[in-house]
C-alpha cells in the first residue's frame, strides 16, 4: 500500500482534530518548507525519522550503449534519504534504545 499526501491529511484530521482544511494547510506547509530547504541544498534532518541530503553530481563522460558513441552526461542534483537508527529498528520490530534516540538528535 502507498501512503499519499491525502492519507497524511486524513490521519492528522483524525488524530489531532484539526479540520481537513487546517490539516491540509499544515501538511502543505511542512512539505513546502522541506522542498525549499532541499532546493537550496540544505540538509533536512527529522529526528527519529532520517536525513534528506542533496548531492551534486558533476558532469562526466559516458557511452551510448547502442552505438558506443561517447557522450557527456550533464551534472545534476540528486536527493538521497538515510533512515535514522530509530526508524530502522522500529521497522524491524526492535525497540529503539535511548542511545539510538540520542544519536538521532
Describe this structure in words.
The structure is a single chain. This protein has four helices and five strands, in the order ααβββββαα. The protein is of the alpha+beta class. It has a single domain (5-104), classed as HU Protein, Chain A (Irregular), CATH 4.10.520.10. The strands form two sheets. The protein has a three-stranded antiparallel sheet with strand order 1-2-5. It has a two-stranded antiparallel ribbon with strand order 3-4. The longest helix has 20 residues, at 20-39. The mean pLDDT is 92.
Secondary-structure blueprint of this entry?
Layout lengths: L4 H12 L3 H20 L4 E3 L3 E8 L2 E4 L6 E4 L2 E8 L1 H7 L6 H7 L1
Antiparallel strand pairs: 1-2, 2-5, 3-4
Question: Keywords for this structure?
Answer:
105 residues, three-stranded antiparallel β-sheet, HU Protein, Chain A, two-stranded antiparallel ribbon
Summarize the model shown.
The chain is built from four helices and five strands; from the N terminus they run ααβββββαα. The chain is an alpha+beta fold and 105 residues long. A three-stranded antiparallel beta sheet has the order 1-2-5. A two-stranded antiparallel sheet has the order 3-4.
- How large, in whole angstroms, is the Cα Rg? 19 Å
Please estimate the helix content: 40-55%
- What coarse outline follows from CA principal-axis ratios? extended
Order of helices and strands: HHEEEEEHH
* Number of DSSP strand runs: 5
Helix/strand structural class: alpha+beta
Strand neighbour order, sheet with most strands: 1-2-5
> How many structural domains does the protein architecture include?
1
CATH third-tier fold name: HU Protein, Chain A
Please identify which CATH superfamily we are dealing with: IHF-like DNA-binding proteins
User: Regions with pLDDT < 50 over 5+ consecutive residues?
Assistant: none
What's the overall average pLDDT, rounded? Answer: 92
Largest sheet: 3 strands, antiparallel
Please tell me the CATH architecture by its name.
Irregular
Our count of helices gives: 4
The CATH class designation is: Few Secondary Structures
The portion of residues forming beta strands comes to: 25-35%
Q: How far do the termini sit from each other?
A: 30 Å
Amino acid at each position: 500500500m502507498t501512503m499519499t499526501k491525502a492519507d497524511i491529511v486524513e490521519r492528522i484530521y483524525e488524530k489531532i482534530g484539526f479540520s481537513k482544511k487546517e490539516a491540509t494547510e499544515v501538511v502543505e506547509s511542512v512539505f513546502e518548507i522541506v522542498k525549499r530547504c532541499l532546493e537550496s541544498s540544505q540538509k533536512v534532518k527529522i529526528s527519529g525519522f532520517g536525513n534528506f541530503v542533496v548531492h551534486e553530481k558533476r558532469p562526466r563522460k559516458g557511452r551510448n550503449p547502442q552505438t558506443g558513441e561517447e557522450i557527456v552526461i550533464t551534472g545534476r542534483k540528486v536527493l538521497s534519504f538515510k533512515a535514522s537508527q530509530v526508524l530502522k529498528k522500529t521497522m524491524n520490530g526492535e525497540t529503539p534504545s535511548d542511545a539510538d534516540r540520542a544519536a538521532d538528535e
